């Protein structure tokens, strides 16, 4: 147990570096977080759908398909 005190100090330093909040510090309730995530997912899906419908002449890598 020669390193016992050093381990304790390292644990204290690590705890001091972490935020005290379990939720990541965003300050939102679970319902608010769900709504935020739902909105972000809808926007992402809408953007993806717009790109898919607007880029019918491109291949999988996004380059112009020339045949």
TrEMBL record:
Residues 1-15, 31-46 have a biased composition (Basic and acidic residues). InterPro entries: SERF-like_N (IPR007513), SERF1/2-like (IPR040211). It comes from the Eukaryota. Residues 1-67 are annotated as: Disordered. Residues 1-34 form the Small EDRK-rich factor-like N-terminal domain. Belongs to the SERF family. This is Small EDRK-rich factor-like N-terminal domain-containing protein. It comes from Triticum turgidum subsp. durum.
């Amino acid at each position: 147990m020669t390193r016992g005190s050093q381990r304790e100090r390292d644990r204290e330093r690590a705890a001091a570096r972490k935020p005290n909040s379990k939720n990541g510090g965003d300050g939102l309730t679970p319902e608010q977080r769900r709504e935020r995530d739902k909105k972000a997912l809808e926007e992402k899906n809408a953007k993806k759908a717009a790109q898919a419908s607007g880029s019918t002449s491109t291949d999988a890598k996004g380059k112009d398909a020339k045949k």
